[in-house]
Specification:
By secondary structure, this protein is α/β, with parallel strands linked by helices. Helices cover 37% and strands 13% of the residues. It has a 4-stranded parallel beta sheet, with helices on both faces. It starts with a strand and ends with a helix. Bound molecules: 4-nitrophenyl phosphate (4NP). 4-nitrophenyl phosphate binds next to loops.
Length: 157
């Protein structure tokens, strides 16, 4: 059975496209592509149709990760379409959960902070790099790289 994985951030041009690209590279390297369908989306719609931020694409590219996705906005249907919804920070978590009308809806259990899968980081949230310098983009890749190893281990065990 194909597992459907959705990464979510605010703009869908920095963190969640990076997560999608890293996840895609790791499953390809491990010959697991047939087990997953992967996508990303933003809780906001300001950048819909745009490629990832050039700073994020360049940082990812320097690690051999190509970011090809275009920004789209999360919609309510995504909550039912995907099996696992991984958000970058607590604002994203609240924004996604606000699309669910019922606190007891089982969809709630699909939504997790991506860093909850990290075996290294003590952080809960992947910091938004958009208004910062180059370090922020490197930091996003480093945090996601480790968390996505943990996520893939979880999903394949
Ligand atoms: P992302 O970063 O949520 O990681 O894609 C951002 C991108 C754009 C904006 C904020 C965060 N913005 O305010 O336009």
């Amino acid at each position: 059975m194909v597992q459907k994985i959705l990464f979510v951030c605010l703009g869908n041009i920095c963190r969640s496209p990076a997560a999608e690209g890293i996840f895609n590279k790791k499953i390809k390297d491990r010959h697991l592509e047939n087990l997953f369908f992967v996508d990303s989306a933003g809780t906001g719609g300001w950048h819909v149709g745009n490629l990832a931020d050039p700073r994020m694409r360049e940082t990812a590219s320097s690690r051999g990760i190509e970011l090809k996705s275009r920004s789209r906005q999360l919609n309510e249907n995504d909550l039912y379409e995907f099996d696992h919804i991984l958000v970058m920070d607590k604002d994203n978590l609240h924004a996604v959960k606000s699309l669910i009308k019922d606190d007891f809806n089982p969809v709630n259990s699909k939504i997790k902070l991506i860093l909850s899968y990290s075996k290294e980081s003590q952080l809960d949230e992947v910091p938004d790099p958009y208004y910062g310098g180059q370090n922020g983009f490197e930091n996003v890749i480093n945090l996601l790289d480790n968390a996505i190893d943990g996520l893939i281990d979880y999903l394949t065990n």
